[in-house]
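INFO  loader      accepted 1 record
INFO  loader      residues=295
INFO  predictor   begin
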Amino acid sequence: MRLTETVTRFAPSPNGYLHAGHALSAIIAHDTARRAGGRFLLRIEDIDLTRARTEFTDAIYDDLGWLGLDWEKPVLVQSHFFPDYLEAAGRLIAQGLLYPCFASRAEIADAAEPARTDPDGAALYPGLWKNAPAEAVAARIAAGETPAMRLDMEAALVAAQSKLGQAPLTFAEIGADGTSRQVLADPGRWGDAVIVRKDVPASYHLAVVVDDARQGVTLVTRGTDLFAATDLQRLLQVLLDLPEPRYSHHRLVCWSDGRKLSKSNGDMGLRALRADGASADDIRRVIGVADAVPV
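INFO  predictor   done
INFO  writer      dumping tokens
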């Protein structure tokens, strides 16, 4: 199912102040929707409760307003929707596609093959709790431990193919010139990814597909660093019978040595640039925003 109206979104995490790279993403999403006569949405992705701060959320609103952007109200805040993510996870459990995992990062690192990593560079999960005896799982839960829930990738691919019939798992990628191409998704390279974390009832991948569907997003514009994430998210959309948006992955704002900007380092922070006298037009020039993604 595809909707014809252009609905874009900018979805920052309130764990630091926005930098010029965030400005590029926000402006592209905003300008693309405005030029198409569509809708631009803002979403606060604060499921990581240990790092989210109200002051950073307030700063996001302030910085985006200073850039001259406007968005629909109310803003969706992910931490208000934990029951919905659990419901979606429950649908995957009912299909037999999630299993509990109690392994720590250290245990995974010790057991994993060093040469096998996921697209983010993390050790590919070596299946420590896959097909674990029910009594072993029950004993850990009885001891007060909360497991993460991992996707059985092998079973998930079979289930998705059953839903798709003979069609391959693909997504539509819109280039900067407006041309569209179908990209063959390869979610298997993520291995048995975490879908529900131990500390919160969702992972980024689960929350984002649920919320894109909830908000009626039809065009996801984001940086090329999230291109591989689309593979796993398209798989989840198929398994959960969610609508398929189009995607457009834009260039990143990087230093001359190729490093992308970092929140934690305060790289090209918008608040600092404002304090130094920069204007919103200056930011647009610095990040090279002339035209939004055509649709």
